[in-house]
Write a structure and sequence with these properties.
Shape: elongated
Structural class: mainly alpha
Strand order of the largest sheet: 1-2
Number of strands: 6
Distance between the termini: 28 Å
Number of helices: 15
Length: 368
Amino acid sequence: MADNDRVDKFPTVESALEKNTVDELKKLAALFETKDMPRRKGELVSHIALKLRGELLFETWNKLNDLQKAAVAETVHSSDSFFYSDRFKAKYGKLPSFGEGDERSYYSYKLTLLSLFFYRDIMPDDLKERLKSFVPKPVETKLHLAKQLPTHFELLSYEWDYETRKRIEEIKEIPLTVCETERTAQQDLISILRLVDAGKISVSDKTFRASDASMKAIAEVLKDGDFYDPEIDEKKDKYDQKIGAIKPFAFPLLLQAGKLAKLNGKKLALTPAGRKAMSQPQHETLRLIWEGWIKNKLIDEFNRIDEIKGQHGKGKRSMTSAERRREIINEVLKECPVDEWMTLNDFSRFMLASGNKQLSKSNEIFSV
């Protein structure tokens, strides 16, 4: 389909069918097992449109398998008429079948009945209205939670066997490390505010990021240290991206986003709000920092991950704004219950399956 032929909606089944070639229409008409199939385009359009009305529509829908019915239900009971494949796969684990065989071959590729309900991933408006009368609502999107954490998690890796010239799949059991930071974050916040007050945190006037020496000074006052031992980076291959500091990198930016500190020359200095925070309940200060971080434009968190491409140059246009992304993640986090655990992948699936299609733009959130 050419770019200038793109459509956002089809008011009727007929308007959708008109976009198809005669050969494509014949394939669709054949799904009804019609003996005397029309040959002309206009006749084929009328023939198929007529079949998608009344009892014949219910019979056609009833022949779909469960996954195909779910695809219809998700669109029928949504705010628009588009079939979002990424959202559907996140919720159900796989995609429904629109056809079988080699798509590149006209003769071997066979359409399934689901192709009668969507045209270029769009369900016609009149068809959607008719389906609403009998298609049940889809199952609710659920977040997979766990009351307890496992002691290990499995990491799938691959090694190349040069003798057999084959790739060997290996599953390693990695001990799970738990970092409960609710209390330590409050203590770390006070310690870092004192460092700033003492004029010991230098930051760039262009990137607003702390210097290496400043991050080292921050690491030394953290109650439980950083999340990863710095020696991990030293052992890495020179071609692998280094993890780098996490807490020491983040805190100076968080203080600036929360308006507790600002640049004074080349060093951070406490603002009046920052001085007040030193005597305030720290959990309240952390909440204010979080609220400030959601709206800040100091940095896009993805900038620290080299594997995420398209962050600069022309590709940057395909990325959602960091502020909008944080805002959506924050809203989904509010739906998560306390005292239960989830994997990052499950959280990502939940966001996509819940309808936050802004996050799936260019596959830029998390691997699913």
